[in-house]
Amino acid sequence: MERKEWPLWEVFIRSRNGLDHKHCGSVHAPDATMALQMARDVYTRRLEGVSIWVVKAADIVASDPDAKPELFDPAEDKIYRHPTFYQLPEEVNHM
Amino acid sequence: MYTQSLSVPDGEAKGPRKVENPEYLAEFNAKIDAGGFIEAKDWMPEAYRKTLVRQISQHAHSEIVGMLPEGNWITRAPSLKRKAILLAKVQDEGGHGLYLYAAAETLGVSRDELTEALLSGKAKYSSIFNYPTLNWADIGVIGWLVDGAAIMNQIPLCKCSYGPYARAMVRVCKEESFHQRQGYDLLLQMMKGTEEQREMVQDAVNRWWLPSIMMFGPHDRDSIHTETARWGIKRISNDDLRQKFVDATVKQAEVLGISLPDPELKWNAERGHYDFAAIDWDEFWNVVGGHGQCNVDRLAARNKAWNDGAWVREAATAHAEKMAAREKQAA
Question: HEC string of B263-275?
Fold first, then answer.
């Protein structure tokens, strides 16, 4: 039988309730059940998580690293979107 | 890690960012100089990518082969407590190998390619794992000295310029501390035992000391990978790390009550460091070159494990395909 590499799954872990799931690494597994099992063995040997998400790496749609300027630079000159842009009178500036 | 599982053969141009371009290079160098991180999909010089693939995969192979000398003692651990600790440690080493393979895969090599390079003997792994574990104290000494040396090497890597590698190393270093401490604890307990047990500890230290300080690699003046410093992959030199390790270990040996097998080891007040004997590099290159005591056994064990597991990998793939087809039919 010709060897087929198991697909790659990206692993996200919620370290405790109240926090977001965060990307922590990847595993190879034949299916979702095994991917969860392997993610548990590889990434949570010391109570690192209370919940795991796995998603096939091939299903992730990512922004193009070459498009960084078009995507993110326009936000650079919109400093009025930040609260610190507004200088208020001393007495009320903690608003 | 954000990984691509497709294999990209060396030298194949893939899209505009693969092209060597002075403008991209300037941008890359500026990022490195500013202490920034390079991420998987960012443009990088081909030589940087190749160096990282080599270093990260060798590191991963070392973790995987490193399971063998210690695995050798799991069934013979002297108590249930020590057996549980050793199992956890060996499982960690397997985990470290997996974090690192995943980091290497973000650079466009496939897991199978990396595995194949190890199994065929093409890829190198740390020379330290080609020494045999002859008595139970070896397990303690590996934790104390071998993992201790590994930690010295690995802590600077947590700040290396390649993001996926740096993040994997943060995770590895957190766990390595347990490895070193359990080893020292094991030795402390043996030193409180019989005269024969103390001799076992000294014997193990005598055999592992030189291989441990060789783990830092050739002297800086003989090192061929100088560009790794420029690229922020290697932040502290081999000799500086080795000196740091020797300085830290002397006190630990004293507390343990054993002697380090080096008659030239003594404090040099002028340098503010311990002096130690010259290293026999012929032995080092001999072991790296495949002629250590256990090279043949280690590769044979890895090949056997891989081949014996083939039917499991195939069955799991077949099951996944069957389930997927069944689901499709039901829909």
Answer: CCCEEECCCCEEE
